[in-house]
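Q: For a teaching handout, I want to show students what a protein-ligand complex looks like in token form. Below are the inputs, and the small molecule is DQA. Please produce the holo structure.
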Amino acid sequence: MATLPTIFVLNGPNLNLLGTREPEVYGSDTLDDIAGQLEDRGRELGVAIDMRQSNHEGHLIDWLHEAQAKGAKAVILNAGALTHTSIALHDAVKAISVPVFEVHLSNPCARESFRHHSFVSPVARGTITGLGALGYQLALDAAARL
Ligand code: DQA
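A: Here is the structure, written as tokens, with DQA included.
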């Protein structure tokens, strides 16, 4: 049987705490809940999901390189606070030809001013913010179809 196209779903710092972390901002779904939702939707769309989380910038960069090396179909990236600080992540997204879809559970532009700038957005294929866990599923639909 031919292998399914793979979509990497990369999550940055503090997203391992979803479910208990500021649920009024980020919702009550855990990262495992979101992974389950994406796997269900991935089966319907005919894509495999490779979901990961790290609190370390370098892991995210290595995984973006790996997505390229392994010929991933797309990357869904919620870089957490690194979104607002990391030129290295910007460069990594720019360095690969795999399309990267930026997702945020909250709407950073409606929050503190230090969240208003994203180093990921200028190099992302598209960005979905403010829709909670649904944003991941919408990004997956887009990644599978575009
Ligand atoms: C976040 C938004 C970021 O500003 C924040 O630092 C996060 C989560 C989101 O999903 O809404 O860690 O990326």
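A: Two things your students might notice: Residues 6-144 form a domain with the Rossmann fold fold (CATH 3.40.50.9100). The longest helix spans residues 31-45.
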